[in-house]
Amino acid sequence: MARPAPETVGDIALLGTGTIGASWATYFLARGFSVTAWDPAPDTAGRLRAFIDAAWPAMERLGLSPGADPARVRVVNAPEQAVEGAVFVQENAPEDMTLKRALYGCIDAALTDDAIMASSSSGLLISELQDGFRSGARFVVGHPFNPPHLVPLVEVVGGRATDPEAVDWAIAFYNAHGKRAIRVEREVPGHIANRLQAALLCEAFRLLLSGTASTADIDAAVSHGPGLRWAFMGPFLTMHLAGGEGGLRGALHHFGPGLQEWSAASGPPRLDDDTIETMGSAVDDMLGGRSIPALAVERDARLLALLAALDAPAPASDED
Fold first, then answer.
1. pTM score, two decimals?
2. Measuring CA to CA, how many Å separate 253 from each of 32, 126, 266?
């Protein structure tokens, strides 16, 4: 069977329907796909249905594609059934090398000769995941950011055995259906966004543990400061503007010595049980009893508002 063009795919196979998998299912349904899903947990159908129903109003606000229907999902009893005849498979098993490879062993023979299998893995290397499988040349990482039904980013990574055309097709597929897929040219644990996020998190942990600032003020320093710019402009363009007429070169000549000095002494914080408890208690105090579900609702509402703002036309500049 010849693989169809990315924009013409109609059915998605989904392996794993936890937080990430259920969010992916919601997104694909809103984009007009039908979804065949499998998960080993009990009451998969009920949990998946509940997630989709709760998230569907957000998808309606974002705009549904032709054919979008929250009922176009079915749950099957085995992973082999889910991938049968599928052109595209999104795998969302737990972040465990042994578990994922066991799952791939179940589906390897059932995948069609042209199927692309994308793993949502946030840090594992696809070269190690794909090794030894018949279909391994068509395995890629397709790592979303949480929650996938709202956040556009997908990082696509090929492994040593991956056919470059599989990476190209996966990027084209995600981008054809509303995602912002980026290419990771070289495998590194954590890909791109999680490595950037890890650097910021480690510094935030150090600032808290050293008594430099509270959790609330550290969070505010990001969300009310550089985070506002980062919503539409990444670190390179941010620094380019900071350099004025000199651009990035001017900024690095000016700020570079300080950046190197600040980061030189920054080793990773030790996350032992006592440290984790200290930071967890600090976050509990900051939340003042607000629950994780309530925080997630607030996050999603603000994401929707931000996405709407980013979709609005940018004001014309004097140079236009």
1. 0.91
2. 50, 38, 21
